[in-house]
Each structure stands twice: as structure tokens, then as C-alpha cells.
UniProtKB/TrEMBL annotation:
Presence of the UniProt keyword Nucleotide-binding in the record: no
Coiled-coil regions, chain positions: 418-445
Claim: Repeat is one of the keywords in the record: yes
Gene Ontology MF terms: phenylalanine-tRNA ligase activity; RNA binding
The protein's name: LRC47 protein
SUPFAM superfamilies reported for this sequence: RNI-like
Keywords: Coiled coil, Leucine-rich repeat, Repeat
Length: 592
């Protein structure tokens, strides 16, 4: 049953038209920022209006760039239980001001951005009290604390956010890392296993004088950034981080000049091997201790992950993709973005992926199942982002990412005839009601689960080709016109979000990795061997290697960069850029 919005008081509606509109349109996303908002907050004594608590359906809330904002509305967490994204950057929120609003539990929160608030300590909701209260943000995956004044962090954060995957701490005043985040080596095992999923840790531009040996107690750590600090040494324990693939130590005054040269050359693998070998000036006794510690660490890794998972990680590292830059592409695809998408679904990232093989056996079925699973997991049931995949050969560029009124937007949905968006949604709603009646339950399946994501929208987002045909209607469906089939070899990939550009990029990274994994599985499995057609699907019609035993792991997929431009031709997004695909770099070799 839909959660009813309560009526916003008339006086407050006058002062805060954004809240009145959000209540009337039953919005899931709300963004408040800018000078006008700051002025109203200042007039309200540095606090937000109580009317904000009358929007229980909100899933994404941004309150940024408001120097007058010193306190969140008390009871915010309890009033907005559906929140999965909360952006509070560049305000003046202190621990007390945050504590008033974040007190309680936010069970669905996945992303929290508190950067640029001048925080000197964490709020109680993030373990600032150091106690052992139940997790306040049990599902939190990304926490941004950059640009504050934090001098230390305690183990309470790991208890408050046990599922954390990315922790951003750059631009603070931290002296040691991990510091108090993790238990000391001689601590009891009661706190063992803190941050089991933390893969990205950034602490550049702090005052770090020590990088502790307990950094190796982060079993999932893949990316570490401690640039521009005051480190003089790097611990050999870094070599014991089982999944560390990217590390930035530049801007530190390291005593070991040979090591510093490797650091300046960004040679992460060489750095870890150097540290593993004992580095410069290590005696036999210390090298012996390091070897003993390494064996102990390997034993713990096997206990934590199992030999099988470690082998899988190493095998996956053989996956290859090659990036084709725009400058090397004679006919690059371009996407133009209209200004209207900003208020509906602002963010889009696109690319072309060539060389997939969907012909053999159940390859296409596996591909579609993987996309569905990504929508459930990393896309958080399409509330964070939506994936669309198209047959590139059926697309006519350039493309336009636009908005159209529901009564004007026409699309031929997958498996259906052409109809207007408003009629499609009405049809899906009727099907959902019938599904509920037949199954005698509230939950529905398929596209019916995503209808509420467009509630209250005056315009709907769409991707239109050069002929004016709508090929995508996010977050609902693609067009039958560009449907992927077994003989599809080249894909156009699209990820959209109303939340953030970074979420689009992270989802696209994961999508490319998953397709690369599926492609290799298809090529190496029995169903993918012994057929000339399947060989054609891999190598193309001009294949000269029929009958030869191609090594599939060495054949890279090709990712072509796609530019997203505004209406004036200014670049908004280029994917993949030189920094993209970093989230999956430990599993994917990228040839640039």
C-alpha cells in the first residue's frame, strides 16, 4: 500500500516551494542547494523546516552548499526510512547538528556524503561515541568524509557501518592510518573482522606520519591513496594485502630513494614486490620476521576466503579489455543531453563494447540474467541506476538524451507494440494489479516493480536516435528496435541515474567486467567450441583462423569511448576516461 504524504502547512509551503512540490508529486528524490536555500535556512536559525519530515517516500536527498545549515531536523532518520542516498556536502554541520537528524537507524542507506563540513569528530550515528551500539547504517557502502578537520577515527565506525566498501578521508588532519579504525595487533579477537568488504580507502592530503602494519588486516582492500602526506616509510605489511592492486604514495618524503622512484612512477606491483622482499637495508632477522608474518597472513587469507576464491581472483585477472580512444575512432558515437533531464534523471554514461559472443547455447540467456541481477544488486532495484543494452548495428547516431511528456513519448517496448509512455505505465499498472490478485500477495515481478520510480514526474527521460525513434525509456524499458539477439556482436551500453554520475560509472565498470567474464565463460565452455558460426561470432566474417584453437583469455573485448555533450557541444562525460574501470582493475586488465 502506498505511503500517504501528509499535507505541508501552508505557511511552510510558501517559504519552501520545493517541499510542497515534492509532497504533491510524491517524489523519491529531492535536491536543495544554492543561495536562496541558504538564505531561508539562515532565517530559520540554521535548521531545515519540519516539513522535510513529511516526505517519507524520499529515497535520495541532497542538501549541499549551504553555509548556514548547522543542524539537521531532529528525527530525520526515523521520518525518512527509505533513504538510500544522503548528500550533505559543503555545509556547516557539526557532530551535534548531525546527531540530531541521524539518531536512530537508516537501514536502507547506501551512500552518505558529509564532505566539506569542517567536522572535528564523527557523529554518534557513525560510531563517534566509541560505544558498541547496534549498527546505525547497516547497509552503508560508501562514506565520504573528505574536506573536514578529523584528527582521528575510532573502531566505532566499523561497528556502525559493517558493510562499508569505500571510505574517503582526503583533506583532513589524520596523523595515523588505519589508526584507531582497527584493533591493535595484541587486541582480543572480539573486534576481528572489521571492514571485511572495504576495498577503497582514500586519505590523501592529511598529516599522516604513520601507515600502520595493521593495514594488512583489511582483506578486501584494492585501492589505497595516501598521497601528499608526511610518510617517511612504507610498512612491508602492505605486501600482505591480498587484493591490493592500486596504491598512490606520491607526495611523501620517503627515506628510501629507490622506493620513492617506484612511487613516483606509479609502479604499484613493483612497490609491493620490493616491500615483500624486505626493501633496502633489511637485516636477516627482520626479513625472517617478515617471512613468518607473510606465512601467517597467507594462512589467515585461506581461512577467510578459501583457496578456491583466491584461485578465482587470480584467474579473473587474465580478463582483457582494450580501450579505443575517440581520437583513434573514425566514427565515434556521440550522445547529446538536453537541459530538461537535469530535473528528471540527470546523469548518463555510455560506451560501445565490441567482440561479444552470444550465439552458443545459453550465452544470451546468461547475459540477460546477469543484467537482471545487476539491477537487483548494485543498481539497488533500479533506484540507484538503470542499465540498458542495445545492438549497436541497429542504432543510428548521434543520440539525444532528452525528456518528453508522458502523453507524447512513444516507444515500442521489448515484446510489445508501439504505444505512448502514459499508456504503457497504465498497462503495466493494470498488469501489476492482476498479478497481485492472482498470486494473492503484495509483491510483483518484472517491470511492474519499477513503476513508482516515475511517480510525480511531468516529463519522462528517453534516449532518442538520429531518426527520432525512442530506443530507451529509463528506468522502465528498452525499445524492441535495438533488442539484443544471439547474432549480436557489438553492444551499445547505457547507464542512467537520478542520483550521481559516479554511480553511473561504477555500475558501468561492473557491467563491463561481468560481460567480460560471461564472454570468456562462453568461449571456454564446451557449448562454445567446434562451430564455425561461433568462431565467426568471435572473429568476424573475415576470420582467417577457422579450425585453429584460439586462446579466449588473450582476446580482448574492445571498449570504445563515447562522449556525452551538452546542447552547446561542451563535453560533459567521456567514458571510459583514464581513471575509469579502476573499481574493477584487480579483476580486469585494461589496455589503453
Amino acid at each position: 500500500r502506498a505511503v500517504p504524504y501528509r499535507t505541508v502547512p501552508c505557511a511552510m509551503a510558501t517559504a519552501w516551494p520545493e517541499l510542497e512540490a515534492a509532497a504533491r508529486e510524491r517524489r523519491r528524490e529531492l535536491s536543495l542547494s544554492g543561495a536562496a536555500v541558504s538564505g531561508r535556512v539562515s532565517a530559520g536559525g540554521g535548521r531545515l523546516p519540519e516539513a522535510l519530515l513529511e516526505l517519507p517516500l524520499l529515497q535520495s536527498l541532497e542538501l549541499s552548499g549551504c553555509a548556514a545549515l548547522r543542524e539537521l531536523s531532529p528525527g530525520l532518520a526515523a521520518a525518512l526510512p527509505a533513504l538510500h542516498t544522503l548528500v550533505l556536502r559543503d555545509n556547516a554541520l557539526g557532530p551535534a547538528g548531525l546527531g540530531a537528524g541521524l539518531g536512530g537507524t537508516l537501514p536502507n542507506l547506501r551512500l552518505l556524503d558529509l564532505s566539506g563540513n569542517g567536522l572535528e569528530a564523527l557523529p554518534a550515528a557513525l560510531g563517534g561515541t566509541g560505544g558498541e551500539e547496534p549498527a546505525a547504517t547497516p547497509g552503508l557502502r560508501s562514506l565520504n568524509l573528505s574536506g573536514n578537520r578529523l584528527r582521528e577515527l575510532g573502531p566505532g565506525l566499523a561497528l556502525a557501518a559493517p558493510q562499508l566498501q569505500a571510505l574517503l578521508l582526503s583533506g583532513n588532519r589524520l596523523r595515523a592510518l588505519p589508526g584507531g579504525l582497527l584493533p591493535t595487533p595484541d587486541a582480543s579477537n572480539a573486534n576481528a573482522g572489521l571492514f571485511p568488504l572495504l576495498s577503497r580507502l582514500e586519505a590523501a592530503d592529511n598529516e599522516l606520519e604513520e601507515l600502520g602494519t595493521d593495514i594488512s588486516a583489511l582483506p578486501a582492500l584494492k585501492s589505497l591513496d595516501v598521497a601528499n602526506n608526511q610518510l617517511r616509510e612504507l610498512p612491508s605489511a602492505l605486501a600482505d594485502c591480498p587484493r591490493l592492486k592500486e596504491a598512490n604514495f606520491r607526495g611523501n618524503q620517503l627515506k628510501d630513494k629507490r622506493l620513492e622512484k617506484m612511487v613516483n612512477g606509479c609502479q604499484t606491483k613493483a612497490i609491493l614486490e620490493y616491500l615483500r622482499a624486505g626493501g633496502r637495508g633489511k637485516g636477516k632477522a627482520e626479513s625472517g620476521r617478515e617471512e613468518a608474518r607473510k606465512k601467517k597472513r597467507e594462512k589467515q587469507q585461506k581461512k577467510d576466503f578459501g583457496d578456491g576464491e583466491q584461485d578465482e581472483v587470480e584467474e579473473a585477472s587474465k580478463l582483457l579489455v582494450k580501450v579505443l580512444h575517440v581520437s583513434e575512432n573514425p566514427a565515434p558515437l556521440v550522445v547529446k543531453v538536453s537541459p530538461g533531464v537535469r530535473d528528471v534523471r540527470a546523469f548518463i554514461v555510455c560506451c560501445v563494447l565490441k567482440g561479444v559472443n552470444l550465439k552458443p547455447g545459453n550465452a544470451l540467456k546468461r547475459f540477460l540474467s546477469a543484467q537482471t541481477k545487476l539491477h537487483e544488486d548494485i543498481c539497488e532495484k533500479r533506484t540507484a541506476a538503470t542499465i540498458a543494452t542495445h545492438d549497436l548495428q541497429l542504432i543510428k547516431g548521434p543520440l539525444t538524451y532528452d525528456v518528453q511528456p508522458p502523453e507524447e513519448l512513444k516507444i515500442t517496448p521489448l515484446g510489445r507494440k508501439e504505444l505512448k509512455a502514459k499508456d504503457l505505465l497504465r498497462q503495466l499498472q493494470l498488469e501489476a494489479e492482476e498479478q497481485r490478485k492472482q498470486k494473492k500477495r503484495q509483491n510483483v515481478s518484472g517491470l511492474h516493480r519499477y513503476l513508482q520510480l516515475l511517480d510525480g514526474k511531468d516529463n519522462y527521460p528517453c534516449l532518442v536516435d538520429a531518426e527520432g525513434v525512442v530506443i530507451s525509456f529509463p528506468p522502465i524499458t528498452n525499445s524492441e528496435k535495438t533488442k539484443i539477439r544471439k547474432d549480436t556482436r557489438d553492444l551499445f551500453l547505457e547507464v542512467t541515474s537520478a542520483t550521481s554520475l559516479q554511480i553511473c560509472k561504477d555500475v558501468m565498470d561492473t557491467l563491463i567486467l561481468k560481460i567480460a567474464e560471461l564472454n570468456r565463460f562462453t568461449l571456454e565452455s564446451k557449448e562454445g567450441s567446434g562451430s564455425e558460426n561461433e568462431s565467426d561470432a568471435l572473429c568476424g566474417p573475415d576470420n582467417l583462423n577457422h579450425g585453429q584453437n584460439v586462446q579466449p583469455a588473450s582476446v580482448p573485448l574492445v571498449v570504445e569511448q563515447v562522449r556525452v555533450l551538452d546542447t552547446d557541444g561542451n563535453l560533459k562525460v567521456l567514458y571510459p576516461s583514464k581513471t575509469d574501470l579502476s573499481t574493477v582493475s584487480s579483476l580486469l586488465t585494461v589496455i589503453r
